[in-house]
Write the structure tokens for this entry.
Amino acid sequence: MSFQNPVFIPGPTNIPESLRKACDMPTIDHRSPLFGQILHPARAGVRKILKSDDAEVFIFPSTGTGGWETALTNTLSAGDKVLAARNGMFSHRWIDMCQRHGLNVEIVETPWGEGLPADRYEEILTADTNHEIKVVLATHNETATGVKSDIAAVRKALNAARHPAMLFVDGVSSIASMDFRFDEWGVDVAVTGSQKGFMLTAGLAIVGFSQKAMDMTRTGTLPRTFFDVHDMAKGYDNNAYPYTPAVGLMNGLNQACDMLLSEGLENVFARHHRIAEGVRAAVGAWGLKLCAANPSVYSDTVSAIRTPNGFNATDIVTHAADKYGVAFGVGLGEVAGKVFRIGHLGSLTDVMALSGIATAEMCMVDLGLNIQLGSGVAAAQEYYRGHPAEFQKDAA
């Protein structure tokens, strides 16, 4: 593998040089007011990216999985009922975590490639007249299948059912790359991490809590120590953590928020959509299909590309690494060996995307697939030429 080539996995993503430098800093006293000058601006920046006025933002030394555990353990008690759809590997993993914590999960089995079934949620919530369901889990962007779900529709289902359940959203591969509206969608806990849209290394779990979720932290009895938000809040009041923070990464997060907000969130989202559309144009030119069932659920951060029956899609990923020093994503879970994934999020441009498309194309031709060399690149070029970036100077 080459360190010179960009990666095309759906996280961790490419790190801009300025953010690498921001993380590379001298040791400071993390219990001094100096740390507060990193901590509080980072939290405020995340809040803006969530599009929230008053979400309580907590940043743990962890990953998105730790963010999931933070959401569950701070608000729920053993035996509480949770509603979730299983439509991909990451919704599956969140369900598994719930079950390991002794929660009662009502699972809506959903074909991999489809979005969350908001209509089915509404039926189940309406029938739950005793309000036994305490939380609805929603994966905004299913990284394994390249599927984006409609979180506004899930909130609408909760409202239509007049149900008081909280809405927890996994935004690990969407927040800071695709439009996310914490307040408008009535999200109670949003979970993300440092290694995708924020363009840093893995190491930070980033969560936003609504006031309703904060109220529930006073009644939830699941065990938590490292992920206790009240311990963390007390630390924040003193410009500190209840334990040693990842200071360099926190400084990087602060700078990443500045970078994203300087580019302008709508420009960030438009850039991701434009790059994704070029990749999708290439897939069409190859005569292949996405795992995502239809355009309404296409992800702007990752494309899971189906290969012909009988062909092991993982061979493309292995060949790309071995011959060209380029990283793509393998298929996971039910789509393992059936898809390969091109991540197109974070620090990426049209030109960088073209190099990934060209490499995928070479690999498929090398491996004997009936692909016309240059076809996908030409289709993406045509799209990018017809849809030029309107805000390029400060793009990440």
The first helix runs from residue 17 to 23. The CA atoms of residues 25 and 248 lie 6 Å apart. The chain has 13 helices and 13 strands. The first strand starts at residue 56 and ends at 61.
